[in-house]
Description:
The structure holds two protein chains of two kinds. Chain A has one helix at about 10-35, and strands at about 45, 50-55, 60-65. Chain A is of the alpha+beta class. Chain B has helices at about 90-100, 105-125, 135-140, 350-355, 485, 490-525, 530-535, 540-570, and strands at about 150-155, 165-170, 175-185, 200, 210-215, 220-225, 230-235, 240-245, 255, 265-270, 280-285, 290-295, 300-305, 320-325, 330-335, 340-345, 355-360, 365-370, 380-385, 385-390, 400, 410-415, 420-425, 430-435, 445-450, 455-460, 465-470, 475-480, 595-600, 600-605.
Amino acid sequence: MIPIRTTLDNSTTVQYAGLLHQLTMKAKSTVRDIDPQNDLTFLRIRSKKHEIMVAPDKEYLLIVIQNPCE
Amino acid sequence: MEIVYVYVKKRSEFGKQCNFSDRQAELSIDIAPNPELAALYVERNPVDTGIQCSASMSEHEANTERFEMENCGVNHVEGGWPKDVNPLELEQTIRFRKKVEKDENYISTIVQLGSIMEHCIKQNNAIDIYEEYFNDEDDVEVTEEAPSAKTINVFRDPQEIKRTATHLSWHPDGNKKLAVAYSCLNFQRAPMGMSHDSYIWDLENPNQPELALKPPSPLVTLEYNPKDSHVLLGGCYNGQIACWDTRKGSLVAELSTIEFSHQDPVYGTIWLQSKTGTECFSASTDGQVMWWDIRKLSEPTEVVIMDISRKGQLENALGAISLEFESTLPTKFMVGTEQGIVISCNRKAKTPAEKIVCTFSGHHGPIYALQRNPFYPKNFLTVGDWTARIWSEDSRESSIMWTRYHMAYLTDGAWSPVRPAVFFTTKMDGTLDIWDLVFKQCDPALSLKVCDDALFCLRVQDTGCLIACGSQLGTTTLLEVSSSLSTLQRNEKNIASSIFERETRREKILEARHREMRLKEKGKVEGEDDGQKEEEGALDLNELVAKAEEEFFEIVFSELRRKDAEAMKKKPKSVRTSAGVGGGSGGREGAMWPEFCLTAGVWVISSQ
């Protein structure tokens, strides 16, 4: 997994990319296990500090980390 | 038709041994076929039979082995670069990235993904989906649910030879870990090959302890340092104090020298509040309380001997079983002894005699637990023999409140850190009692049987929801208490303080009354020569006794006379004489034997 374009520093990017790639794969396989016709379109993880949004694709992955509006 | 074969056996032959013998077969019955019976039946045609043609299967059960899982992290590094690109060369990587960015597939994918992402981002910006709409409503609802507690987890001693879990300590930050000290408290009955290890458990993993602590001798107490969560203090069975740093591993980081340590198992160790966070003190049944600095455990910084005659003699000292220290009252500490006395001491006193401030006695046996109420430090709880008692520092003669005598020994007790009127006690029959003074004072609000063996120690987590109890076979049970017992009720602080004050006042009044009575007695003893003083008070003991005697003999005499009269009617000939200086128990009618009766030192014989 290679980070193409990022606004964070390299090490953080690599960490986020690696972890979220694995999680996305797992989520995708879960969705498809339940219904093989289904597919994962978007993944949102909301934590205490911020929200991580992942848009998966066949080859690429778009990850956005946002601070909630409160 | 019944086919019966009859045989006869003589009674005298019953029970004889069987003598088997061979003989020819005998025809008992011969039944010839009767073709006339066939006429009663009709042949069935066609015949219906069900058959199945399938693979024959068998059912078999299998229990899989427990799957040991281990958590470990993954270190992500960059990778997957194509062969011609060297990941370390910045130029090459930049060039590769630029190439990818120009790829059509990439562009279209990003545009598509970007639009989805934008939609969600905008959503987030527009509304906060986790907004609390009705914040105030939570205070209004008061659920009157019955108090309950349930077991969440059980941590068993992984050793073959089971030891008692003698002390528990929660991790100071986050309470996710529990340190348990294991030892065998029966004097010299520790089995051969018993391991000395004590464990730190992670609450998430009950199968395996997170860390094993290896002291030279089994640990009786174990405490986390509230300031530094990596440091633990342990008191050993042989009297030494040991210190661990969990970052360094399982072996002891510091150990006190045997010559200067206690001579008996260390039953209580507590960390002190100090700027350095390295001071602690310990107590043991050898009668000494020692202060230590863990940086230099070779000898204690101070030693106090628990001698209540204030002479500082070790021979007269009382053995200490529990120790209490509250950081809000840093100069005072309390020691619970084996003899059932609580000694309150002042650390800052100049002379050893002044160190011991006062004593509270009331228990019949060793005081296993001693703790001040976290909300009202003047009141403290002691647990020992078959009762739990609550004391107030002001009332020194006796406890202000106590539970009734239970059927089993009470082994440990603790206040709830969130509710001032709730405390927990454990018993030798394996039950955990939760007492709520606001709800009911004569019985526990909830009594749970945690396990079949005796429970030895108890520790409440700082949030007040989780309780850990350790048992005799080394199983530590984690219980969760219902929210009604772990959230502060309305007005509870005021009610609890008024309960304690009322009981303290009652005890003070009783104390004052006792003192008055004692003064009066003393006054009476002094004034016996002075006749005037005797007239005072119908409370004169001798007079009362004489009066009681008179009345008693009156009753007896009248009874005897009545019996005489009856006897005279029946047997006018016999002369009854009842000789006696006093009375006697009413003689049985027609009794022929002399009766002896001892009443208030007077002999009575009534005979016929």
